[in-house]
Amino acid sequence: VPSGIVLVAINPYEQLPIYEQDVIYAYSGQNMGDMDPHIFAVAKEAYKQMARDEKNQSIIVSGESGAGKTVSAKYAMRFFATVGGSASETNIEAKVLASSPIMEAIGNAKTTRNDNSSRFGKYIQIGFDKRYHIIGANMRTYLLEKSRVVFQAEDERNYHIFYQLCASSSLPEFKDLGLSKCWHIPVPCW
């Protein structure tokens, strides 16, 4: 299977003005290679090939914990929403990412490299109509790190949801979860 372009990016640990709306517009009108390498260039090429060839396209975002994979995916979605005419109509980026806090509570944990590290993979499928406007999205998770449930390395933590449940165990709503009888195990919360 032929591969497309590869972009190597780093997480600068600070906000840079290279992901603003004017930068999206600058990249949307250019050919690949006309401007500096950028996540918007990768997204633009995938979008252009989808429209030209009428075939599905994929962008694979990979990297170590804390490398900025989720943020890169967010910027690609922002690009699609803007050039696809959906940014103001449906704000699809916000809708897709609105599920993030719930997914992070259940699938993210503290590691030695990242306090909010995804311990699973995410597959985000974005649907476009015949005019190439975003009409919806579907997010799936896979490869959940199940070993973390029973063991964590030193200075690491279980999934966030476990600690959130510990912290809320005194709330009246906790009773309705049916966990009170099994919740007698002494564990450090936070």
From TrEMBL:
Family annotation (PROSITE patterns): MYOSIN_MOTOR (PS51456)
Binding site for ATP: 63-70
Cellular-component GO terms for this entry: cytoplasm; membrane; myosin complex
The organism's place on the tree of life at top rank: Eukaryota
SUPFAM superfamilies for the chain: P-loop containing nucleoside triphosphate hydrolases (SSF52540)
InterPro entries (alphabetical): Kinesin_motor_dom_sf, Myosin_head_motor_dom-like, P-loop_NTPase
Record's keyword annotation contains ATP-binding: yes
Positions of the Myosin motor domain: 1-190
One Gene Ontology MF term: actin filament binding
Keywords for this protein: Actin-binding, ATP-binding, Motor protein, Myosin, Nucleotide-binding
Listed GO biological process terms: actin filament organization
Pfam families: Myosin_head
Claim: ATP-binding is one of the keywords in the record: yes
Record-stated family: Belongs to the TRAFAC class myosin-kinesin ATPase superfamily. Myosin family.
PANTHER family (alphabetical): MYOSIN, UNCONVENTIONAL MYOSIN-VB
Protein name: MYO5B protein
Originating species: Emberiza fucata
Gene encoding the protein: Myo5b_2
